[in-house]
């Protein structure tokens, strides 16, 4: 897991409350990270600079290391990535932006673009529900046929375990299995019970490694973008940790990725991670 020495927090200095900043303060108190407050402002002036400076000084008065950045690079996503690269931040935190159906049909929402383009993990804050003594859900793809998913699952569980221990929270693990397919040549995929058993068995190595009981492992019929939000609501989850493969092109523009779709309906915070090779490719593209 990447060391969180520097964290980038996207703030709106015009708002009286910044939930993402409150979340960042809690993380910094545990990790000792330097907090980089970014105001994406193409109309910066002395008043906006003063508001940002006040936020920075408030953090510093609470013995936190903090720096302020007011910048603009063509658009909000480019600005965030530019500052993240310049300051070598290993985590981006921002409040999740609510999008209506019409705006999603016309263009990819800001948060979707950030998830696709960011070369580091992104925490989107959707709730002020406390993490401490709460429940953290690791959402994985337990498909045994995908080596990429196995590697990403390991990263997801590693982050989840670290956060849960830091917050004295309870870890839960979830995966969604496909619907039965009567036309499948494999009998396992024709039956609901056998499919659930297959995916539950695939979760056992992770459950054993992180000492999770049977009650902490959840397997249900997908798609994940429906199952995970419903499960998170049922279990009163504070944070979902999940992966994204950063799909691009026309298909991504129309339907989005699983992580992006989940953002539309989930009511808790979401931390998204990418496979290492994808993060390295994105970083190379940014620097090219």
Description of the structure:
The protein is α/β, with parallel strands linked by helices. It has two domains: 6-95, 3-Layer(aba) Sandwich (Rossmann fold); 135-283, Rossmann fold. Helix content is 46%, strand content 19%. The protein has eleven helices and ten strands. It has helices spanning 19-31, 46-61, 76-87, 101-106, 110-117, 147-167, 192-209, 224-235, 249-255, 258-265, 276-287; strands at residues 6-10, 34-40, 66-71, 91-95, 122-125, 135-140, 170-177, 217-221, 239-243, 269-273. The protein has a ten-stranded mixed beta sheet with strand order 3-2-1-4-5-10-9-6-7-8, with helices on both faces. Strand 1 (6-10), helix 1 and strand 2 form a beta-alpha-beta unit. It is elongated. 41% of the residues are buried.
Work out the number of β strands. 10
The pLDDT mean sits at 86
Text of the CATH class of the largest domain = Alpha Beta
Helix content: 40-55%
Order of SSEs: EHEHEHEHHEEHEHEHEHHEH
Main pleated-sheet profile: 10 strands, mixed
Rg of Cα set: 20 Å
The CATH topology label of the largest domain is Rossmann fold
Strand residue percentage: 15-25%
Major sheet: arrangement of strands: 3-2-1-4-5-10-9-6-7-8
Structural class: alpha/beta
Shape: elongated
Count helical runs: 11
Overview features:
single chain, 288 residues, alpha/beta, Rossmann fold, 2 domains, ten-stranded mixed sheet, 11 helices, 10 strands, elongated
Give a quick summary of the entry:
The protein has about 290 residues and is of the alpha/beta class. About 45% of the residues lie in helices and about 20% in strands. It is built from 11 helices and 10 strands.
